[in-house]
Recover the amino acids of this structure.
């Protein structure tokens, strides 16, 4: 047998969100016509560099299927490959926080980065090698059929998913989701978010935006600072290079280089930008805004994003900032600036204690002993949070919040103690609000939402 397998159908594109049907259809007419107990096999190779199928260095598994009634083999590899990508919670080595370089011994949450951070878990390369196995009737052994090998193209998998309402497109027999909008090469190119172009943050709030780096021309991010009257107050240009937490070569075939995280919210800028920190000290950026846009030398090559810097709250409401994993595997953020209510519930173990001193030479009636007592008390904190009045553009973002598997409470810019571990910035929470009713201006006039979160970690007190 010498005929190679034919890949009749495969996903479209190079950048592939793993959360979708990833269908491969394989045929081999010679094998089907001439052999018995034929199975189509798929060797899945996934790695941080482009896998070489001749070796087993990146081999994750071999999966087999029998022929269907049309004589072809169908594979849906979603359940396999989505295990090899996940969210980036920590910054990559080589990034920095307040000028301190991230390393194995100096770790920083990705939300706090100064400028750029490579991704560490968000994406991987994949190549699949297909072949046929059959029953050798001479030896009565199942074996791999020589000459049937066929490799797929190279794919870059990232930790995104496709909603049922997202439009798919096809090319010949193939179909998939169009991810070309994420390639930074024109004013319609977008970052990895569905959040509106206009976002809001307090002057101490941290946050990142993430984007695909495969464009050779994209070499910097321009940050412009404007007052509330639209006067330009200052600017910073964050060049993409290794000293800023990125790499110089956008085509370096390493998965960490394919997607970058950018620290572009006020807290991140206060980490390193003397220009922005001076505006904060002078009080001129509050009520103004920051523009964020990718550039190729002096030409803008992405959509622009605006971050409104909130004015101080005169009613002294406590701001609660959440971050959550969005549809495309990056992070979205929102600061809830209106009334919030904190409540604490406790649950403990109890026992009955004898009164007095029973284990001494004389009995003494100690008044602090005796009766029902708590052995241990565990406390759980819940917070009810409210948005300001928002626009309909925010609905998609809040839908993703309620569907997100990872939600965190994020603290703002502060002075760190010497040798601080930075464990007080990111707190895991669980969104206990289980339903979301989309509001519109036509139906509801003013739009405001309320959510409830619960801190995932219980406060464990002393045991007695």
């Amino acid at each position: 047998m010498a005929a190679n397998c034919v890949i009749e159908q495969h996903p479209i594109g190079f950048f592939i969100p793993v959360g979708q049907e990833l269908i491969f259809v394989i045929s081999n007419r010679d094998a089907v016509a001439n052999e018995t107990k034929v199975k189509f096999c798929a060797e899945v190779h996934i790695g941080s560099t482009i896998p070489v199928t001749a070796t087993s260095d990146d081999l994750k598994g071999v999966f087999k299927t029998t022929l269907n009634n049309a004589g072809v083999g169908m594979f849906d590899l979603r359940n396999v490959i989505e295990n090899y990508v996940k969210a980036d919670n920590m910054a990559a080595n080589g990034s920095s926080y307040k000028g301190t370089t991230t390393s194995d011994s100096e770790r920083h949450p990705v939300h706090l980065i100064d400028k750029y951070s490579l991704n560490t878990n968000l994406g991987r390369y994949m190549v699949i090698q297909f072949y046929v196995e059959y029953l050798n009737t001479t030896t009565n052994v199942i074996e791999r059929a020589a000459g049937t090998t066929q490799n797929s193209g190279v794919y870059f998998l990232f930790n995104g998913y496709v909603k049922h309402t997202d439009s798919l497109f096809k090319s010949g027999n193939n179909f998939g989701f169009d991810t070309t909008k994420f390639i930074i090469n024109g004013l319609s190119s977008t970052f990895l978010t569905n959040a509106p172009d206009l976002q809001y943050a307090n002057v101490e709030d941290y946050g990142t935006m993430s984007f695909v780096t495969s464009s050779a021309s994209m070499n910097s991010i321009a940050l412009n600072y404007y007052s509330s009257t639209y006067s330009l107050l200052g600017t910073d240009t964050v060049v993409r290079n290794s000293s800023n937490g990125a790499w110089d070569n956008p085509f370096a075939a390493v998965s960490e280089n394919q997607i970058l995280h950018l620290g572009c919210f006020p807290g991140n800028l206060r980490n390193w930008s003397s220009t922005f920190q001076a505006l904060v000290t002078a009080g001129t950026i509050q009520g103004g805004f920051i523009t964020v846009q990718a550039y190729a030398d002096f030409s803008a090559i992405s959509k622009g994003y605006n971050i409104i810097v909130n004015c101080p709250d005169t009613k002294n409401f406590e701001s609660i900032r959440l971050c959550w994993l969005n549809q495309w595997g990056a992070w979205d953020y929102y600061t809830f600036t209106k009334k919030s209510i904190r409540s604490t519930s406790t649950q403990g173990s109890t026992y009955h204690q004898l009164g007095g001193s029973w284990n001494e030479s004389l009995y003494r009636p100690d008044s602090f002993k005796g009766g029902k007592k708590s052995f241990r008390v565990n406390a759980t904190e819940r917070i009810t949070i409210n948005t300001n009045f928002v626009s309909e553009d925010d609905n998609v973002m809040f839908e993703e919040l309620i569907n997100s598997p990872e939600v965190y409470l994020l603290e703002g810019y502060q002075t760190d103690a010497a040798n601080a571990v930075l464990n007080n910035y990111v707190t895991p929470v669980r969104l206990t609000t289980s339903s979301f009713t989309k509001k519109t201006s036509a139906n509801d006039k003013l739009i405001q939402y309320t959510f409830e979160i619960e801190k995932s970690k219980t406060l464990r007190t002393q045991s007695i």
User: Anything to note?
Assistant: Residues 137 and 163 are 47 Å apart (CA to CA).
